[in-house]
Amino acid sequence: MQSSARERSVAFAAPAPPESSETEASTRQRVLQLVASTGPVAAGDLAAELHLTTTGVRRHLGVLEASGQIAVHVAPGVGPARRGRPARRYVVTARGQAALSSSYSELASQALRYLAEVAGPTAVEAFAAARVSAAEARYAVELAAVGNDVAARAQVLARSLAADGFAASTRPVPGMAAIQLCQGHCPVQQIAAEFPQLCEAEAQAFSRLLGVHVQRLSTLASGGHVCTTNIPTTRTTVTGSTGTTAPGRTT
C-alpha cells in the first residue's frame, strides 16, 4: 500500500516548469556560439559541453537550422563506412554569423571604398595593419609569459582571440608537426569579403606573434564555415611584414 501511494504521488507530481522564452533564447544563443567555435559538431558533443540533454540540444539545433543560422556539414567520407546513420554535424552559416554580431557596418565598407579610391590600395593595407596593431601588442604581452614554444603560444593566442569574441580554438593536425588555429566568428566578415587586406593583416600579425610562417587555409569572408590558419610547430627564421623579428626567432 505504501508503495502504491508513493507511485501515485510520483505519477501526479507537478511537471517541471518549462523554460521561459528569455531562457530559451539565451540557451539557443549559447548553442549557436558553441557551434561557431567547435563546428562541425554533433548534438551529443554540444549537450555534454553545455550540460544539457541531447534531446533539448536537438530542439535548439532544429530551430537554428530552420532559421538558416546553422547547417549540416557534409564532409567527404573518411575511413571505412560505419553501420547505422552517422551523427549530424553542424556548422554556422553566414546568417548565423550575422546573428552572432551586430558589428557589421555598411558605413565601414563605404569608408574603405572611399579610402581606396582617393589614396589607393596601399592605404587600405596600411589601415588593415594599423587596425590589428593594438590587439597584436596586447597579445604579445600575454604570449610572452609562455616562452618560445609555438604550440603553447598558439593556445594562448586562441584563448586571447576567444576572449575578444572570435570563437577561437586550436586543433592538432594528425601526422604533422602543425596545429590549426580555428576562428568560428569574425566581427568584420562582411567587410573582409570585400577587403581581404583585413584577413591578410591578421595572418601577418599571427606570424609575427608566433615566430613562424602561418598559412590561411580558409576564411569566413571567402565562404568557409571557419577561419583556419595552419601553424607549423617547428620554428624557423621569419621576418614580419614590418621588418622586425618575431619573439623567440633566431636571426
Description:
The structure is a single chain. The chain has 251 residues and is of the alpha+beta class. It folds into 2 domains: 2-100, Arc Repressor Mutant, subunit A (Orthogonal Bundle), CATH 1.10.10; 106-232, H-NOX domain. 51% of the residues lie in helices and 12% in strands. The strands form 2 sheets. Strands 4-5-7-6 form a 4-stranded antiparallel β-sheet, sandwiched between helices. A 3-stranded antiparallel β-sheet has the order 1-3-2. It is globular, with a radius of gyration of 23 Å. Residues 1-18 and 237-251 have low confidence and may be disordered.
Short description:
Pfam families: HTH_20. The protein has 251 residues and is an alpha+beta fold. It has helices at 2-11, 21-38, 43-50, 54-66, 94-100, 106-119, 121-144, 150-163, 189-194, 197-210; strands at 41-42, 70-72, 89-92, 168-172, 178-183, 215-218, 227-232.
Beta strand %: 5-15%
CATH hierarchy, class of the largest domain: Alpha Beta
Largest beta sheet: strand ordering: 4-5-7-6
Instruction: Write the CATH homologous superfamily of the largest domain.
Output: H-NOX domain
Give me the oligomer status: single chain
**Class from secondary-structure proportions:** alpha+beta
Protein name: HTH domain-containing protein
Region (Disordered): 1-26
Organism: Cellulomonas fimi
InterPro entries: Carb_Metab_HTH_regulators, WH-like_DNA-bd_sf, WH_DNA-bd_sf
